[in-house]
Specification:
159 residues, mainly alpha, 0% strand
Length: 159
């Protein structure tokens, strides 16, 4: 051992937690969080309203006819909105890229899933909900970006 070796910093393989998940896995995780989280939260909110005395028919009419005016319809939508924000933040946390393509792909997948399973009864309300979902996804993505940038993951990159 030479004298020079004493002054070198120790070399160790440390896991910094900054590994990048493949895009398909990050998209799948965020999509599952948004869809299943929104579904379960919506069902819980619906059950709360049913316990309070609303009938299933009243809830259906309120949601279709009263949206977005009815506060009860908003009560059913807010948990899904929170899960959309969370999905956007999860996507950038997993994929760790400031690129705008991943949240846009997540939006397209969510829209296709919605059309496939629920259809679009009213094109205006579907368009409004889609635009709201897009804004929420990008809002969550921006929150996640700001958090990761604060941690030093993105030093000088711009979203």
């Amino acid at each position: 051992m030479s004298l020079q070796d004493n002054f070198k910093p120790p070399q160790a393989d440390l896991d910094t937690g900054q590994t990048r998940t493949p895009l398909w896995k990050a998209l799948l995780a965020a999509l599952a969080l948004d869809i299943f989280g929104s579904l379960v939260a919506g069902l819980i909110m619906q059950e709360i309203l049913l316990i309070q005395g609303y009938s299933a028919q009243q809830l259906q009419e309120m949601f279709v006819d009263g949206f977005p005016v009815s506060l009860t319809a908003l009560w059913l939508v807010v948990p899904g909105c929170l899960f959309s924000v969370w999905a956007g933040a999860l996507l950038i946390h997993k994929y760790r890229s400031p690129a705008l393509l991943p949240p846009l792909l997540l939006f397209v997948l969510q829209t296709l899933f919605t059309l496939l399973f629920y259809g679009a009864e009213s094109s205006w309300s579907f368009l409004a909900m889609s635009m709201l979902n897009l804004a929420l996804l990008f809002g969550g993505w921006m929150l996640g970006y700001a958090r990761l940038k604060k941690k030093g993951v993105f030093s000088d990159a711009k979203p």
